Amino acid sequence: MKPKISVVTLGINSLEKSLKFYRDGLGWQTKGIMATQYQEDDKDAAGAVVMFRLNDDLILALYPRKELAKDANRPLDPKSATEFSLGHLVESRSEVDELIDLAVVAGAIITEPPRERPWGIYSGYFQDPDGHPWEIIWNPE
């Protein structure tokens, strides 16, 4: 297996709310909610999903938590915001501040304001409407 990630899927509570945050608030491009024709049955999860192309070979998918659990054949566990974080590298310290401010306007909650870290980066964290943590990072190295 090549060390590559092609799709990151976030389990979310509301497709509409998350679509509004990422598309309307952060300005990301998407076709909107897709695959609504695929309904849940005894065996398969429903298909409704939102996808964002983040770069040439990475897609962020938003999929209802309940459907993700069913599709992966896993129990619907309690949410946890400390199992992973998503990082977004930027070109300058001021861009960290600008993107954190944009996220707040979009409805994010700041969990850690931007600051210098002991290991040489400048970063801050926000969480999306479903509590997924995003770190905005400037690394001068």
Name its key features.
single chain, 141 residues, alpha/beta, 2,3-Dihydroxybiphenyl 1,2-Dioxygenase, domain 1, four-stranded mixed β-sheet, 8 strands
What does this structure look like?
The protein is of the alpha/beta class and 141 residues long. It has 2 domains: 7-71, 2,3-Dihydroxybiphenyl 1,2-Dioxygenase, domain 1 (Roll); 86-138, 2,3-Dihydroxybiphenyl 1,2-Dioxygenase, domain 1 (Roll). It is built from 3 helices and 8 strands, in the order βαβββαβαβββ. It has helices spanning 15-25, 65-71, 93-106, and strands at 7-12, 33-34, 49-55, 58-64, 86-90, 109-116, 122-127, 133-138. The strands form 2 sheets. Strands 1-4-3-2 form a 4-stranded mixed beta sheet. Strands 5-8-7-6 form a 4-stranded mixed beta sheet, covered by helices on one side. A hairpin with a 5-residue loop joins strand 7 and strand 8. Helix 1 packs across helix 3 (93-106). The longest helix has 14 residues, at 93-106. The radius of gyration is 16 Å and the shape is elongated. It starts with 6 loop residues before the first strand and ends with a strand. 17% of the residues are buried. The mean pLDDT is 95.
